[in-house]
Amino acid sequence: MTILVTGATGSVGRHVVDQLLxxxxxxxxxxxxxxxxxxxxxxxxxxxxxxxxSLRPALTGVDRMYLFPVPDTAKECVDIAVRAGVRxxxxxxxxxxxxxxxxxGDSIDDHLAVENAVAQSDVEWTFLRPVAFASNTLFxxxxxxxxxxVRAAYPDAAQALVHEADIAAVAAVALLEDGHVGGRYTIxxxxxxxxxxxxxxxxxxxxxxxxxxEMTPEEKHAEMIQYxxxxxxxxxxxxxxxxxxxxxxxxxxxxxxxxVPARTFAEWVADHTSYFQ
Length: 277
Ligand SMILES: NC(=O)c1ccc[n+]([C@@H]2O[C@H](COP(=O)([O-])OP(=O)(O)OC[C@H]3O[C@@H](n4cnc5c(N)ncnc54)[C@H](OP(=O)(O)O)[C@@H]3O)[C@@H](O)[C@H]2O)c1
Hints:
Elements lengths: L1 E4 L7 H10 L3 E6 L11 E4 L9 H4 L4 E4 L6 H11 L3 E5 L13 H14 L4 E7 L10 H7 L1 E4 L5 E2 L4 H13 L7 E4 L5 E2 H12 L4 E4 L2 H8 L5 H16 L7 H6 L6 H7 L6
Bound molecules: NADP nicotinamide-adenine-dinucleotide phosphate.
NADP nicotinamide-adenine-dinucleotide phosphate binds next to β2.
């Protein structure tokens, strides 16, 4: 059995490759960059999900696939994969599709487009719907290392940040084992902690004080709009506003699927301290 991992150089995909290899699976990695370097020794095959025909060489002999979500061409990619012999697809989706946040806008449509393309095909499927990744806090790395400060809005927004390795662990089980076909897993960390607590956790791990400077939502909006589309900024800030009074619900998905508790945010920071020092 050969498993194709798309998005293999991404924050989740790298872990999917590593964990499948650790479990003895035969893995092939897709990248748009033929010289992509991955931690693991793995066959890297060139292909672009926006150019579905380019996937044919990567799909030769493939039975199962981890699908990084590229909505515009999802249907064509799935059709080509099914014709090439793929029988199971595990999709990286998002908690946004759970529509707890009406403000999620394009993100809901994009992820649903990919889920629907897969659900309407003749394959076994599992949808991974993670909440916010712990790696989003890497956005703070620059101001922490240079000024010892985090500037953010909604300090009391409580998130159940998920370690990317846990999303990958669920993916690996769903790809390799039976019992997860048709699963729609909302994947979270083990606890919801506020942004202030997140900063305190990072400070504790690196052994330095970090100041939290609260921004108004308007100030944060003005900052974010410089590097993100308006729809994304509204979605992210709307999510934080809700999370002040409605912390991310914690789900047991990681423990139930993998048999191991979800990693804490402190564990994620311990795996990434070099970024904050
Ligand atoms: N951040 C969050 O809090 C969060 C929460 C829930 C869901 N999500 C979803 O998770 C996804 C991001 O996952 P991630 O962090 O693992 O991704 P990532 O780190 O952004 O990496 C994605 C990888 O996918 C590959 N890729 C991108 N476009 C491609 C294309 N057209 N064809 C082939 N490969 C392509 C790229 O590899 P190459 O350059 O090597 O081709 C890239 O390294 C997004 O869809 C996001 O909506 C994120």
